[in-house]
Amino acid sequence: MTLTLNADRLGDRLERIATFTRPDVPWTRRAFSPEFEAGRRWLQEEFRAAGLNVRLDTAGNLVGTLSGRCAHLLPLASGSHTDTVLGGGRFDGVLGVLAGLEVAQSLRESGRLLRHPLEVIDFLSEEPSAYGVSCVGSRTMAGTLVPDMLALSAPCGETLHAALQRVGARPDALAQAVRAPGDIAAFVELHIEQGPVLEQAKLPIGVVTYIVGIRRVAITIEGRADHAGTMPLDLRQDALVGNAHAVSTVRAVADRFLTWPWYVVATVGRLNVLPNASNAVPGRVEMVLEVRSDSAEILEVFPETVIAECQPELSRMQLRASVRQLSRTTPTPCSDIVMAAVAQAAADLDLPCRQLPIGAGHDALHLAAVAPIGMVFVPCRDGRSHCPEEWIDKTTAANGARVLAGALLGLDRQLA
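Structure (tokenized):
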């Protein structure tokens, strides 16, 4: 039996949360920012108005719970995140949170309680934060946010530990937010695809098969800062020139791995140049390299391969390179039982679907250490995401929420 949802209410909430943005860079609501905190306060009130019991766990995850008929059963869970990248879109993450809220509210209003309790979770800081680590809330829930990560700092000097305290979390009590394996019956996350596959195939629903692993490292190239007008080119130890060589090597290594039978992408998307002056030779460059793959072996060797291949040229330029691990996740398959529930829900609604892997990281990846996981994809316009042009229409959002509801209802019937 399907659940009737209020598509207009879901659409209105998607519009409302989008207003919590930096006015100069829409749609920006980065974790730990004033815009994020304001959006969180609004969301907390929406959870309460929907009849959910609301709490902020010690990791800063906002959790709304709808009681089930059988209090002894483990909770089903759904959700995603409400933070964005700089200039990010209006639906990435947010759709999953608000659709989960709509499912819970529609259940309560219809008088149809699930057997299991239902948790709707807004995970803290899924996107890479200014502190150099992503999925802060879901990592903590899975028990993989290590103490070294709390010491990471933003360019302003604030540590992640201090930022967590500032938004109401309790970083000295993170163990209270950890869920042990088996503490959640199943976790289902609705998300826009962030790619073009579903749209090009004219399919309304995707059933995710696996989530790639992601490894991020900080690479520092050190040379010597000098006067840009008086230091001859052949005597310079220009760290930015060396960094440019390293970036080119990243692409070359990635292209070479693409001939292997695995998915792999690699990106350098963050640079910090010192002294960063037009009249100074760069003496130090810090960059973040991110590699994504469904192969654990590629993740293991990729940054080290880049540095090894760069080393002769860096040595010739009298430059030094060092690598520091920031974060790492392993390739994660989705649960067969959750994938089947998603596919059945789509079939019950006469919504064609297909299976597909995912190259983006998600909170569901970390929840796999706790519960069987699965993801529902809906297409987005032109496959665009992490940009102001990211867009889905009201029908697409409603289709995803209806499949999410059907999957949760199916899992509620199947799972003990």
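The longest helix spans residues 296-316. The chain has a mean pLDDT of 96.
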